[in-house]
């Protein structure tokens, strides 16, 4: 995602600050009107229905994000939880990156819905996808949060303390069950949401796997040869600082600030965008 990193660096004011707050407020308003309107007329005007979009109802491309996933009081807990997650992610990533994450997920969901509309003639499957709306997009947002803060504890049902990574594992099981049990092609919608997550965290996951590989048995080090190699590399490189995540250097971006992470094992340099947004080196 170097392109996204460069775009966010060059356009720090891109996006809507506190975007999750507005999504939660809009969803809460729709929920209040929905429980007063038992016919579900309001939600039906907001759902992502490709046939209606093609007839000119373009607002559905955005308003499907405001359709509540349930009609009971648990929706309040759902909204609070994702409002909190969204705020933390925006503080960690910055407003531009968080907005791009949600926008990318929305675009992928819209594209998938239109593909199903043109290829699948089963109205039950299409209706199911419309009803789900942003459900899996929110779950991919939770996976992102769990990747950044795996050991953070939350009170499940306000009673049971659980680490975020275990809740993410439970959600991953639900993802797998939905992929297996849902009718085709509705079972591909969870995979679409996972693709959005992998776009932003695939590189970090690959890096984690590489670092967790079993180490080979230690061999005798030729210190004279290694010293010569390090001196040669120092002469060859044209920069003083290079981000261990995005690869940007102080030569390419002279105005970018670089720092060393005190929580990583060894000396690892990161740019200002990734000093608080990276998987810590353990070895």
Structure in words:
This protein has about 280 residues and is mostly helical. Helices cover about 60% and strands about 5% of the residues. It is built from 12 helices and 4 strands, in the order αααααααααββαααββ. The protein has helices at about 1-10, 20-35, 40-45, 50-55, 60-65, 75-95, 95-120, 125-130, 135-150, 165-180, 190-210, 225-235, and strands spanning about 155, 160-165, 260, 270. Strands 1-2 form a two-stranded antiparallel sheet. Strands 3-4 form a two-stranded antiparallel sheet. Strand 3 (about 260) and strand 4 (about 270) form a beta hairpin. Helix 2 runs antiparallel to helix 6 (about 75-95), helix 7 crosses helix 11 and helix 9 packs parallel to helix 11. It is globular and about 75 Å long. The two termini are about 25 Å apart.
List the helices and strands and how they pair.
Blueprint: H1 2-10, H2 19-36, H3 41-46, H4 50-54, H5 60-63, H6 74-93, H7 95-119, H8 123-132, H9 135-148, E1 153-156, E2 160-163, H10 164-181, H11 189-211, H12 223-236, E3 258-260, E4 269-271
Antiparallel strand pairs: 1-2, 3-4
Features:
283 residues; mainly alpha; two-stranded antiparallel ribbon; two-stranded antiparallel sheet; 4 strands
Q: Care to count the β-strands? A: 4
How much of the sequence lies in strands comes to under 5%
Class computed from helices, strands and strand pairing: mainly alpha
Could you estimate the helical fraction of the residues in percent? 55-70%
Shape: globular
Q: What order do the SSEs take from the amino end to the carboxyl end, as H and E?
A: HHHHHHHHHEEHHHEE
């Amino acid at each position: 995602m170097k392109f996204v990193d460069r775009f966010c660096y060059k356009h720090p004011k891109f996006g809507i600050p506190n975007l999750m707050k507005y999504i939660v407020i809009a969803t809460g308003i729709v929920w209040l009107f929905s429980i007063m309107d038992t016919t579900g007329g309001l939600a039906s005007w907001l759902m992502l229905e490709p046939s209606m979009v093609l007839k000119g109802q373009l607002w559905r491309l955005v308003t499907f994000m405001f359709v509540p996933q349930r009609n009971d009081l648990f929706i309040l807990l759902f909204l609070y939880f994702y409002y909190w997650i969204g705020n933390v992610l925006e503080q960690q990533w910055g407003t531009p990156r968080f907005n791009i994450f949600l926008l990318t997920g929305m675009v992928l969901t819209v594209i998938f819905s239109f593909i199903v509309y043109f290829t699948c003639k089963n109205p039950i499957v299409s209706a199911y996808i419309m009803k789900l709306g942003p459900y899996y997009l929110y779950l991919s947002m939770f996976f992102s949060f769990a990747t950044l803060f795996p050991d953070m504890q939350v009170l499940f049902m306000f009673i049971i303390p659980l680490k975020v990574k275990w809740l993410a594992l439970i959600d991953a099981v639900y993802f797998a069950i939905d992929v297996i049990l849902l009718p085709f092609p509705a079972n591909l919608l969870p995979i679409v949401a996972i693709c959005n997550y992998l776009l932003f965290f695939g590189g970090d996951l690959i890096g984690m796997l590489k670092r967790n590989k079993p180490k080979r048995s230690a061999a005798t080090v030729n210190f004279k040869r290694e010293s010569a190699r390090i001196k040669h590399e120092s002469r060859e490189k044209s920069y003083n600082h290079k981000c261990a995540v995005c690869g940007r250097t102080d030569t390419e971006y002279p105005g970018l600030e670089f720092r060393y992470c005190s929580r990583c094992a060894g000396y690892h340099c990161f740019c200002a965008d990734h000093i608080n947004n990276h998987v810590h080196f353990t070895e």
